[in-house]
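Re: that chain you flagged

S.,

Sorry for the slow reply, it's been a week of failed gels. I finally had a moment to sit down with the sequence you sent. For the record, here it is as I used it:
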Amino acid sequence: MSKYTAKYLEEKLAKELEAKYVHAVDESDGCGGKFSVVIVSEKFKGLKMLQKHRMVNNVLAEELKEIHAFSQKSYTPEEWEKVQQEKQ
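Prediction finished late last night. Pasting the structure tokens below so you have them in one place:
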């Protein structure tokens, strides 16, 4: 059982990446071993998807030693706005 929670991940990512929006979901039935996260940050501007993912993985390097499944969607604010408009 991991000591990490969705709230913990949201707070750390928001702080470290100066994120405008972070939403983490514990998909592991409470054991804390499987998370999916959406992150929106200005720090992602000009980066390719792999670069964004590496940045997030670097922020969570210690946590990812215990989390066995982690998926992320990382957006700039402009990309996020477009995704939100497409949902409507």
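What I noticed first: Residues 6-16 form the longest helix (11 residues).

Talk soon,
D.
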